[in-house]
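Notes, Module 5: Reading structure tokens.

Key idea: the token line is not a picture. It is a compressed description, and you learn to read it the same way you learned to read a sequence, by spotting repeated patterns. We will look at two proteins. The first is printed below with its tokens.
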Amino acid sequence: MEDVVARLREFLEDEARSGSMDFGCITPLYVYRMWGGAVPMEEIAAGLEELRKQGLMP
């Protein structure tokens, strides 16, 4: 799970830096599609929830 959280943190930072999307608009489905389905959506959702707990996402 730590690997997914780390990948998500990097992905969110890259998305915000590129100006294409803010954190509030990023959903597990969006990440799943951007990652080509390589990570189960349940793991992505759990990782995003962990980032919310850490205060990274609204």
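Here is the second protein, with the sequence above and the tokens below, as before.
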Amino acid sequence: MIIFAEILHAISIGVLVISSAFYFRHLVKTKKQRKLSTFEFVMYIIIQIAYLLFTISLLISIFVE
């Protein structure tokens, strides 16, 4: 049962990363066309920070274990 939960967790992380990548790409295209709204700009910054933190945590987990 724990393995099933770990698989679901990995799938959910993958879906979140892919969907945020698509939304980030949408925001980049929108930014080129017009000025981003406050909400869009906040999401633009939050997604960049999330990718940075995800990368750092992935590197830590790879090199520490």
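Summary for the second protein:
- The chain has a mean pLDDT of 92.
- The longest helix spans residues 2-33.
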